[in-house]
Amino acid sequence: MIGFSSYAGVMESPMNSAEEQQHSSPLATSWSKKEEPNKNQKPKGVGGFVLVHAGAGYHSESKAKEYKHVCKRACQRAVDQLKAGALAVEAVAAALVELEDSPFTNAGMGSNLNLSGEIECDASIMDGKSLQYGAVGAISGIKNPVLVANRLLSEAQKGKLSAGRIPPCFLVGLGAHEWAIGHGIPPCPSEKMATKFSLSAYKRNKRKMEVAEEMDTGRNQTKKKRLSAENHSGCLDTVGAVVVDLEGNVAAAVSSGGLAMKHPGRVGQAAHYGCGCWAENACNMNSYSTAVSTSGCGEHLIRTMLARECSAAMQSEDAHQALLEAMQNKFISSPFLASEDRVLGGVIVLRCCRCVEAQQSQNIQGILVEFLWSHTTESMCVGYMSAQDSKAKTHISRLPPGTIPGQSLAIEGGVCRLMSVAE
User: Fold this and answer.
1) Where are stretches of biased composition, namely Polar residues (predicted)?
2) Nearest CA among 352, 348, 351 for reference residue 395
3) Is 238 considered catalytic here?
4) Rounded-to-integer distance, Cα 377 and Cα 405, Å
5) What value does the mean pLDDT of the chain take?
6) Angle between helices 306-313 and 319-327 (to 10 degrees)
7) Contact assessment for residue 128 and residue 248, using Cβ atoms and an 8 Å cutoff
């Protein structure tokens, strides 16, 4: 399933077509010239763009409205920040807070419980301008783990600590919790972070495990495989966002409660460098700024470093074809996952460049954004919005009927022009 939509302030629904259909990259034809804007010219009207996801897994029709609502709220929160002049990294953190606060997502409030019945969360954030990264793993008692990750990033940007010590970029467990409290982030009892949905899921999965352990060896193995498949397919493992701001900076973030019934202390892709998210501004080596956020089975995403792989692929001329090949060759068919029956994951990606188009003696400056999402899970819920739009667009992408999750993929996306007139 492949599709594209394009808009400049007005959003259109993605169009679907066969997976084999080829697309030329809209970035190659939409603008007549690509160059750095004149620093003496002051652009007006460019505000930024945000793309969010509420997890790659399975999104039931009965809760589709809730998933879409939280994506809309996350987009609006980020856009509000962008309109106020915030940089991409601040806007992406704001979007993640909204996603973490929803009881319907597996991040922050309502996260999956581990084997011990506790909530341990992972989160990370990356700033494409500074290339700084902050992350927390298996952290308990913090309502919004992304705020800790963001604070780690901002503290690292201040430079070395006393006596020349290197500031941390990745903290886990009790140490992460204590660091957060010490830096003014309030604690939240784990029992208050559990919801009726997460508690009932924990009790249901625990009963299944107890039954499986009582069965004979042969049937036990079958039951465990079935439970594992249900776990991967059913849980909405990880939420995330990618943002480009009015200056063309990009940022990405990701947050997760982890797989259901995970072992205490397990850290998923949401905290690992290059696996959960990636953001990198354009430079001499790269023509495009790129930002990526991933979701799915953390172990699969860690072993393939999917976020960084997808970001690197976005430097190709045809972004759509590049992402299709990356998901197929670097993920589904990865030699690092050769032993897996089903490879489960999803990504949201954006790439952008500054452009100038001469028109009636005016320089129309702006940022051309191409955004995509792809997944091998049954479904993936996304939302997107530019600062020039009145409301966000949301979509639940699903694999075509008859296809097997983990062995096939869906890919969709669109193009956004963020335009301004230079004075």
Assistant:
1) 14-31
2) 348
3) yes
4) 5
5) 85
6) 150
7) no
Listed by start position, the domains of the chain span: 2-422
- The enclosing H or E element of 213 equals helix 196-214
Tokens matching residue 43: 């652009």
Tokens of 148: 């800790």
Characterize 353-366 residue by residue with b for buried, 16 or more Cβ atoms within 10 angstroms of its Cβ, and e for exposed.
bbbbbeeeeebbbb
User: Distances in Å between the alpha carbon of 62 and those of 99, 176, 384?
Assistant: 19, 37, 22
Catalytic residue among 195, 217, 238, 304: 238
Beta-strand (E) ranges in 83-237?
A: 121-127, 133-139, 170-172
Q: Which two tokens stand for residue 263?
A: 């072992």
The pLDDT tens digits for 89-133 are 999 999 999 999 999 999 999 999 999 999 999 999 999 999 999
Residue 307, phi then psi, degrees to nearest 5? -60, -50
Gap between the Cα atoms of 189 and 393, Å rounded: 34
pTM, 2 dp? 0.86
